[in-house]
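Q: Give me the 3D complex with 1-O-alpha-D-glucopyranosyl-D-fructose.
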Amino acid sequence: MTETTQQRGPWWKHAVGYQIYPRSFADGNGDGVGDLPGIIGRLDHLADLGIGFIWLSPVYASPQRDNGYDISDYQAIHPEYGTLNDFETLVEEARARGIGIVMDLVVNHSSDEHAWFRAAAASREGPEHEYYIWRDGRPGGLPPTDRMAIFGGPAWTYVEAVDRWYLHTFSPGQPDLNWMNPGLRAEIFAMMNWWIERGIAGFRMDVIDLIGKDVDRDLFDEGPYIWDHLAEMAKATFHGRDLVTIGESWAVSRESIMRYIGEDGALDMMFHFDHVKLGWDTRFHKFKLREVTPLMLKREFIAWQTTLREEGWDALFLSNHDLPRQVSRYGDPGAHRVTSAKALATMLHMMRGTPFVYQGEEIGMTNFRASGIDQLRDVEVHGQYDQFMKAGLSHEEFMAGVNLNGRDNARTPMQWDDSEGAGFTSADPWLGLNPNHTELNVAADRRDPEGVFEYYRKLIALRGAHPVIAEGGFQAHLENHPAIFAFTRGHRAQRLSVMVNLTGEEQTFTVPDAMAGSGNCLISTHAPRRGLQGEITMAPWEAFALLR
Ligand code: TEU
Ligand code: CA
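A: Here is the predicted complex, encoded as structure tokens.
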């Protein structure tokens, strides 16, 4: 969207993405729920930031049991969010600011309130029955298999009218679609083309590897049919069009990534989660965490950057609507909140790939502290609570896990100003505001020339100004250093040296030869450095990038 004549390759290699979680971004009509007019009213904030496209979390018609990741009509806008007309205005107004709209494609499952599912659950006879995955139960009223749903309970629910069980990988309100059915595939592709005709810039594809599953062989993650389904989808829809496609997969690995995004792959980049899953427990996974050291984190990034340094392309992120706030998870939400937010941003935006900013990250928003699950709305938390209690986790442990790693941390409303509704709403917000909005908000941060927003704005502008940031390779240095993440990016005669102190302690170390020399400091959290030589000391959470 920001193409100039000097830039090489597709526009999305030079753009930064910004994720909007519509329910929590901006409420235009004062009912406590974010909406499309609210987003339109805040587009200038995003244009100032310099982003190239918005990834819009689902805005389709939905009973909202998983905040829109449960779709009841793929070709309608959720009434609380506005109308198709509002959507078209959003596309136009965004385009006028050089910003594209990337839609969230949620096609592993629909809502149980989708007309297809209503028909499918009413009778075995109609074509819609085959759009979902039905199996007979086992004797004794048992479900077809012992598989558990990601949001708690069995992954199968019985429907009397058809005397069969349907599969739902997530909640019972999210029945899995049957991708083995050609009729279903044709419906999905037609729907995608309908959105493409509305001028969108691409798709973010929710849990896309799951559409390749083979249920009877119990192959779910990155199932055997994924490659055929993606190839067919590309051909029928986005292939040959100037769109960006970003897959989301909790299963993609460094071994499999090129099958999605390589020469014969269908997609442009993948959200992958090795760095996110670091420290997760095998039994209570995200709600019981082991410590993640800076060394663990940087090793994961180095491994992926090295895999993708020549042919591949990375989707770079630390935060999204399913994850805790990055300053709380990897930085220091207390004394070093602002500096650690900048350090993490420097690390992310200077690596090779397309960086994504999650709403609120650009002002360093932090986690929310809940005392009980009644303050939370997430289907995952409510679905898993009883199960985890039964399995032996205490209430206190569960709440500690949720406050550290739960999804509502990132879903509290956007903090625009210090007013009662944080500038998000004039009503009661659908999910409680973080009380720190009185100090931590867009208005206050943007007034501060040393604020987080101004730093992000600079970082994003650098990508447009220096080809090495988008086009350069990647080489790690000081690989075993426990605190300093150091790497160089090289492009033609240009060399970019990036150093980030991922801790709240001062670090003294010797600059590796490959990074030594004088340079032009493009950005830094502290006083700009003119060169790197011999022994240096980096301040807590100091970060900088030097161009030679
Ligand atoms: O997330 C994929 C997903 O698997 C996560 O829900 C993840 O498993 C969970 O956070 C780990 O505890 C996508 C969407 O991003 C998420 O919001 C949806 O709830 C989910 O798919 C179902 O559509
Ligand atoms: Ca509203």
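A quick observation: Confidence is low (pLDDT under 50) at residues 1-5.
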